[in-house]
Design goal:
Radius of gyration of chain A: 13 Å
Distance between the termini of chain B: 38 Å
Helix content of chain A: under 10%
Largest sheet of chain B: 5 strands, mixed
Radius of gyration of chain B: 14 Å
Shape of chain B: globular
Order of helices and strands of chain A: EEEEEEEEEEE
Strand order of the largest sheet of chain B: 1-9-8-3-4
Strand content of chain A: over 45%
Number of strands of chain B: 9
Structural class of chain B: mainly beta
Strand content of chain B: over 45%
Oligomer: heterodimer
Number of helices of chain B: 0
Chain lengths: 114, 112
């Protein structure tokens, strides 16, 4: 596609429910990143993939968070047993090649946990 | 990863040149300096990247002194549409080190 596409754009869920956030990167982009951004703060790194391989997941807050990119394209970030503190904007980004530092971000998925 | 320090906020009038300085005293030999811009309700957007001296593109210029312990993003003749948060990132680019860390950024407000 023309840009990084994320869905849903808005998700409201009740505490304890599982949520899945989807990211469709720019076609042909090798690397895919997930960030979380709280209001008034900069994006916080969660994890990234090169092709289908998850290279770094050190930013995932705890084991309720997981991500996959099984075919090296679309990625899903899953949050199990959501808590109110998980409420944030979740941003996905992709880059054409590894190591350029030039990331293209999507519009984000805003998660609200009640 | 090198820690960066930049002003929390800045104001400027339309038509002025704006310079935002970022300190990164612990920058490593292999680190590049990258700046992003973020408008409200949008994702960050890459502006410019450099290693040393000066880099210029159609949007901005990046000045990096010889010791590389700081860098200055220069926006020429700003307009209201340049109101945004600007992030300075320092990190090694290259396979195996893709954890780009954003700080809190500098909130730039352009005044008519």
């Amino acid at each position: 596609g023309a840009g990084v596409s994320q869905s849903p754009r808005y998700k409201v869920t009740k505490r304890g429910q599982d949520v899945a956030l989807r990211c469709d990167p720019i076609s042909g982009h090798v690397s895919l990143y997930w960030y979380r951004q709280a209001l008034g703060q900069g994006p916080e790194f969660l994890t990234y993939f090169n092709y289908e391989a998850q290279q770094d997941k050190s930013g995932l807050p705890n084991d309720r968070f997981s991500a996959e990119r099984p075919e090296g394209s679309i990625s899903t970030l899953t949050i199990q047993r959501t808590e109110q503190r998980d409420s944030a904007m979740y941003r996905c980004a992709s880059s054409l090649v590894v190591g350029t530092g030039e990331l293209f971000f999507g519009e984000g998925s805003r998660l609200t946990v009640l | 990863l090198a820690k960066t320090t930049q002003p929390i906020s800045m104001d400027s009038y339309e038509g002025q040149e704006v310079n935002i300085t970022c300190s990164h005293n612990n920058i490593a030999t292999n680190d590049y300096i990258t700046w992003y811009q973020q408008f409200p309700s949008q994702g960050p957007r890459f502006i410019i990247q450099g290693y040393k001296t000066k880099v210029t593109n159609e949007v901005a210029s990046l000045f990096i002194p010889a010791d590389r312990k700081s860098s200055t993003l220069s926006l020429p003749r700003v307009s209201l549409s340049d109101t945004a948060v600007y992030y300075c990132l320092v990190g090694e680019t290259g396979f195996g080190n893709e954890k780009l860390t954003f700080g809190t950024g500098t909130r730039l407000t352009i005044i008519p």
